[in-house]
Design brief:
The chain is an alpha/beta fold and 216 residues long. Helix content is 32%, strand content 20%.
Length: 216
């Protein structure tokens, strides 16, 4: 099971201290939200931030591009040495081009879908991707509630993975707490992104422990 804290929810003034906490807690992967204030109504991290993290840490950097026309942005994240680059299905018409561009640079390619996007849209792409990110809230919005119907999509992805003998991870992101994590795992998710819950009240250690207990 992969647990990835979303740094977008971190106090940037404390980021070095928080990264040290993550390392001591056995966290190996970080989720980096990239937003352009167009595809979603918010701004997030950029490729320079990823490049700096890569230079000073050994975390696996999972970059989630919530941007319009991701085909224009991926070169910067390839240059920044991202380990995983995930783009939104809805944000482009050039899915295969982007996947091939990412994978040809020995980087894992992920594709994300919004809550209302059906799994059927991805079927032709599933053999070629390393990760499917199921958004369990509407991306870029604040204080969104977990959407229970997204569990059906996780279950469907699990069936497709088994049927096709595919290798992709099934990731979830969006109001993942100690209450919502268990049904996601039961449905087949094996990669968990959590931000607001992990950083709540700056109680990182105890919040991660609650998630780990829920995973067990």
């Amino acid at each position: 099971m992969i647990l990835s804290p979303s740094l977008f929810n971190s106090d940037l003034y404390q980021i070095k201290e928080n990264l040290e906490k993550f390392k001591s807690l056995g966290i190996r992967q970080l989720h980096i939200d990239v937003m352009d204030n167009h595809y979603v109504p918010n701004l997030g991290f950029n490729a320079s931030f990823v490049k700096d993290l890569k230079a000073h840490t050994d975390f696996i950097l999972d970059c989630h591009l919530m941007v319009e026309k991701p085909e224009l942005a991926i070169a910067d994240f390839i240059d920044a040495k991202a380990d995983i680059i995930t783009f939104h299905y809805e944000a482009t018409a050039h899915h295969s081009f982007i996947i091939n561009k990412i994978k040809s640079n020995n980087i894992k390619a992920g594709i994300s879908i919004n809550p209302s996007t059906p799994i059927e849209n991805l079927k032709l792409l599933l053999p070629f991707i390393d990760l499917v990110l199921v958004m369990t809230v509407n991306p870029g919005q604040k204080n969104e509630s977990f959407l229970p119907f997204t569990l059906q999509k996780i279950e469907q992805l699990t069936r497709e993975k088994q049927k096709g003998n595919y290798h992709y991870d099934i990731q979830v992101d969006g109001n993942i707490t100690d209450q919502t994590i268990s049904p996601c795992i039961a449905a087949g998710a094996n990669s968990i992104v959590s931000g607001g819950f992990i950083f709540k009240n700056n109680a990182i250690e105890s919040n991660i422990e609650k998630l780990k207990m829920a995973i067990k």
